[in-house]
Structure formats: structure tokens, C-alpha cells
Prior knowledge:
By secondary structure, the protein is mainly α. The protein is 70% helix and 0% strand. The chain is built from 9 helices and no strands. Helix 4 crosses helix 8 (176-191).
Amino acid sequence: MMSVTGRSRKQIILKEAARLFREKGYLASTLRELARRAGVQGGSIYHHFSSKQEILFVLMDNTMNDMIERLSTSIAELDSPLARLRHAIRLHIEYHIIGPDETYITEDELRNLESENYRRIIVQRDHYQQIFEEIIAEGKACLNWQVSDVKLLARAIIQMCAGVTRWYKPNDKFSIDEIAEQYFSLLLNGLKERGAEEKQTQPL
Length: 204
């Protein structure tokens, strides 16, 4: 069993890898530079990972598993598609703001995964998107949301929320809650059935 020190060192390597890959890109990053940033000897990385490719895959795999688990668990007790959609939007934005390096890598470095690793991450990404699709489909059925393509809308929401990493700064005038509520309101206005404003805007 890996010691606590070993687990901690592995997490440090992953954290520094996410930062390095985001700064320089996966292809331009070297394990020598990663070892220097992580404060380990060059060969020590191979005690934890077999290759740079494995580091990239583990970063993405951990990120997607965590996102799926957090989203699934947090919306399980919410009893309306409105509440679930609002919470899903907030959580997705929050995750990207808190872990910008990991989420950026997961989205922008897919092309550099080997075929089997790529397939496995795509399966996870589809699973995550499916959670949004199920929320939207329920809203369409129960609240008459005006949606022509559930899958397309789910993709659009995910990409819109993920985009905060491109411009958000820690000292931004908007809080995570304010950004999430603005995005939710913008989306909800587009989903409303004509003449159903009162029903759709009731408190959650």
C-alpha cells in the first residue's frame, strides 16, 4: 500500500502537471520540468507514473470522476428540474473556477490522448453531459421548456459555463453565485413557454 507521503507526492505531481500543461501545452512540457516544479528527482516521477501520457490521462480521469460524483450527489435530493438545473449550472461554474488548470486540460488536451485513453475519457464526458440532458428532458416534459434538441442544449450549457475560465479572475466583481444566477436566468428566459412566465419564475 502506498504511504501517505507517497500519495501526497503523487498529488503534488498531478497538480504541478496540470499547471505546466496549461502553461506550455502537453506536447511542449517535459518530465524534467515537471520534476523540478514538483520538487522531486527526475527519475522519481516514474515511481508514480509510467509516462507523461499516463499523467495526462490520470489528470483527466480524476477530474471527470470528481465532476460526475459531485454533480450526481448534489442534485439527488432536489425535487424539480428547475432546482437541479440551477444547481448544476452553479456547480459546473464553481468547479471550473476552483480548478481551472485541471478543467482546462480536460477540455483542451483531449487530442493528445492515445486512442484507448481518449475513448475512456469520452465515455465519462458523455456520462456527465447525460446528467444535464436528463434535467433538460424532464423540464421539457413537466414544465414545457421550449427545447428542440436536448443534447445540443446540454452541450451549449456545459460549454457556456466552462468558458468562465477564459476570463474569470479571483478579484472579479462578480461572485460565483452571481455569475451562476445570471447564466441561469439567461437560459431560463430562453426556455420559457410564451405566456408561462409566472409559472416558470416561481421560487424554487
